[in-house]
Amino acid sequence: MSSLAILEKWGLRPQRPEAIDSSMLKDFVDCESMFYLRHVLGLKKRFRSKLEDAKFDWGTCWHGAQEVLWKTEDVGEALQWIDENFPSYITPETDKHKRSKERMFKQFLDYYENKFPILHREYELLRTEQFFDVFDEDSGLRWAGRIDKIRRRRRNGKIVVWDYKTTSVMGTHYFNSHEFSFQFPGYVWAANRLFTEPVEEIYLDVMYTLAGKYEFFGRTFRYTPHQLNEWVRNVKLVLARIHYMLDNHLYEPEAWIKNWNNCTRYGLCQFADIHYIAPIGDTRLSILSQDYYEERWDPIIAVEEAS
Q1: Other CB atoms closer than 10 Å to residue 94's CB: what's the count?
Q2: 192-221 per-position pLDDT tens digit
Q3: Which of 225, 296, 306 is nearest to 19 (CA)?
Q4: How confident is the model at residue 266, as a pLDDT?
């Protein structure tokens, strides 16, 4: 029986991603097998606890409220958006950081009263929720994704890419992990292809939340043309490895390197149970078939749906 037939026997459908975005690149660098399972087979864990998704849903709600605030400049509409969209399962009783709808109300009002006026004076909004799908002929690189905001500094007229984050982990390493990443220089690189003016800055707008406190942080990162060229070289090297694996091992899950160190990083990877199971017969494929479902992330479709 061929490798493809074995996968199909278990209802698994390998597909080449049409485009690679920063999250997919990071997954591949972190763990090739995780990339294959999530982005080639398109799988997500069926029995994930809601609490495992709390940090993502909390961040999504914060992003949505910011979107409304900057579009309308009306805090009432933003608070109404939180009221209608906040995930009800996040409560002080279930969440280790004691997050809740009422707490987000309080934090958002604090942001609006203290940080928003300063940022509004310093920046004008150019674009909100900027989806992009750009191709650079010189480098041969296609890049797709979504930028939270694009603004212009009132003082010097420079265009600044904007990104919101929510986190319960803070420190110098937090900012370093974002400054030296695939995502941020990639956003700046893409913005340079959306505008005729040069773009070299991205602002990281962070809400830090723990059980007993919350704070707001912000930091600007600048990328020179040399740094962006280096980013392009790095991305193309990783893409070459991805395409090599896709060309030669599209139907072979076990050919993709497993990084067991990544299984326990920041909690537990959703594919840790697969990586911990001994590779005997079709055991891993059987678990994938039973405990996972297909829900693919395609940056190209996301851009098209937003257009």
Answers
A1: 14
A2: 999 999 999 999 999 998 888 899 999 999
A3: 296
A4: 64
Q: Map residue 53 onto helix, strand or coil.
A: helix
Q: Is the dihedral of CA 97, 102, 108, 114 positive or negative?
A: negative
Cα–Cα distance measured from residue 200 to residue 179, given in angstroms and rounded to the nearest whole number: 13
Strand 199-209 with 159-167, pairing: parallel
Say whether pLDDT at 305 is over 60: no
* 227 CB burial (10 A radius; 0-12, 13-18, 19+): middle
H or E element that contains 292: strand 292-294
The residues with which 123 forms a beta bridge, in sequence order, are 153
Q: Which two tokens stand for residue 65?
A: 């409220």
Structure token digits, residue 125: 């909004």
Cα(49)–Cα(291) distance, integer angstroms: 13
pLDDT value for 198: 95
Q: What token pair was written down for 242?
A: 């991805």
Distance of alpha carbon 79 from alpha carbon 83, whole angstroms: 6
User: DSSP secondary-structure letter at 183?
Assistant: H
Q: What angle do CA 158, 304, 140 make, to 5 degrees?
A: 65
CB atoms within 10 A of CB 210: 15
Task: Domain 50-235: state its class.
Answer: alpha beta
Place of tokens 């990328």: 223
**Closest residue by Cα to residue 125 from 178, 228, 222, 203:** 203
Structure tokens at 77: 């509409």
- Whether the Cβ atoms of residue 223 and residue 231 lie closer than 8 Å to each other: yes
* Cα 124 to Cα 238: distance, rounded to the nearest angstrom: 36
Q: How confident is the prediction for the chain on average, in pLDDT?
A: 88
pTM, full prediction: 0.85
- Domain ranges for the chain, please list them: 3-46+250-306, 50-235
